[in-house]
Amino acid sequence: MQHLITDVSEDDFNVAVGGQVEIIGWLYQYYNTEPKDQAFKKKKYLESDIPAVTQLFTPDWIVKYMVDNSLGRYWIDVLKARGDYRSDKEIADDFGWRYFMPAANQTEQVSIQSESTKLSAENIEKVTLIDAAMGSGHILIYAFEVFMQIYEREGYSRRDAAKLIIQKNIYGLDIDTRAFQLAYFSLMMKARGANRRFLTLNIRPNVFDIPESGELSSADFQEFLQSEDEEKQLDYLLDKFRYGNEYGSLVQLAKPVDWSMITRISNQKLSAGQLSLNSIVLVENQDKLREISTVGEILSRQFTIGAMNPPYMGSGKMDSVLGKYVKKHFPNSKSDLFAVFIERLRSLTDRDGYYAMITQHAWMFLSSFKKLRSVLKADTLINMAHLGTRAFEEIGGEVVQSTTFVFKHQTIANYIGTYERLVSFDSQQKKERAYLAAVKNTDVNYLYRTNQANFAKIPGMPIAYWIPKSLTNQFKNNPSVSNISFVGLGMRTGNNSRFLRLWYEIRISSFDPHLTNPDKTFDYVKWVPYDKGGNYRKWYGNNEYVVNWANDGKEIKDDTKRKYPQLGDNLGWKITNENFYFKQGLTWSFISSSNFGVRFSTMGSIFDVAGSSLFSDSNDVLFYLEALLNTKVAFYILQVQNPTLNFQVVNIKNIPLKVKNTETVTMLSSASNSLAKFDWDSFETSWDFTTHPLLIHIADDNLSHCRSPVG
Asked: Are 112 and 415 in contact (CB under 8 A)?
């Protein structure tokens, strides 16, 4: 205990410097460490696993970035609409909002569009902010501070402001009871700091643990129902919250609910003559209904500001209940919960309001989120701090890449957004310092200004804010790789340990690495070459794996039919692009953390998803495209479309072409292939190895022990 007292900084507990929030948040995350580690080992997460695996404490500076640039920006809009002559930056500096990023200079027309006249009459008591997955309340606590600043400038006392902020301005929801309790406690203490009598005022924060209705139905409230319509409305509401503790803020009420009727039912008392042994159960059910009604009303309204760090969970980890719900209600963003919450927070935000988030950056680029990007283009991307890797101290490595951003829920044509590219700064602290430097000096080379309409000129509409106009025009004005070749995924065996081998693990008599006419050789060939990606390598090589394709792949196809009987004979999603098997083409590794290398694949191979491939009937086209795709320019264009670890087929297809010097390029590409093949075949890991280069000048009669068995 003495060590705890001496080792922990006093500031960690000092409310004046934010210590209260920090210590509560970190304690909550530490509490979840063990259950999170256990849950990560599971193929599918249970409902009880969701709070632990999706909780991540938001760094303090990112919280301030989101709130300053959403709530702060909204209030600056209000002041400007009232006639405040100061610049955005001057107002932000006056309030002390260090993380507010001033917008780019806009045309007069854009300025008129973005400053709605209704803002001039805005009342701070009517401005609302919601965090739809609040965790321990970090965002809400900082929002309280910003609201307090605004209230005081509007002439309110701190005592009155504390009451009003808790009653009218701040809302939060979560599925984790412990998180809710910590957020509740933090807000109460924050209010108590501004109003010493607050704990005696019988005011509760508008933060809630999202309930679930379980087995409740209208039958449990039959005594209080007055019509069939009331029964239907009640059943509709209860059904929406059947899995409330799993869906959380994703619960949506598409039909209107008579909340006064629900309130009447949840508060009505039985007359003395109706009392029975079931009275206690009824009272408990009414308590549950009150909780559902309160949260239901919140989820059926809209807020001026939305701000959150959403949960992260890929669709493959969702259980059947959550997975089906997300696919049905959020088809544009179903691949991951963080993307689903982008849509949900957007729907919870008023028209003309702002919503701010920190998420993984995959939604900006991947084809699986193209529909989401199409939805978001109806709003205006005001600011983005593209964080990349290492945005969170406790997450290392290059896997989790993040971005934090602010949208205005309004279309503002020709708006010039501001983007801070912080991906090259390799720690949380360096990213923060770089961001603050950009706030002070917008001439830094990692700050970009662009109209989001430019994104639509690039295939797939990636949020590629940093690319020069000349490259945008290349996409717009030139054909692409897909115009002169076929690019596609290959096979998914469904059981690699059963159907794949390294070539030197098999009986050599059942393998032919040079099939010129596969259809006529399957009477003796069981194993055929298999392009499966591998390490970064250009031009030729990584020929290591073979696949069991005896009898035209009968075992693989039969295994697929057995596992997925509902598909019948439609195996295209597993045995993909079979008509291109055994053709010569180009292949590459689907996953890479460093660079992009394309290799020539000779006739006689099958290709995999991890070794996606490109085909053409012309050797010259193949050599030309191989040269193009192995350039730094191609790698740059791939990163523009998708700066993740994956090189997707659609990204290769969309690379623009500007064909010239074809004879020279194809000749050099062919020569590079020959050199790379010679290098690959110089080692015994190649099935075409004959003699090591260092032994090439040894007399033939001394070479017998140096030759490969294949030779």
From this structure: no
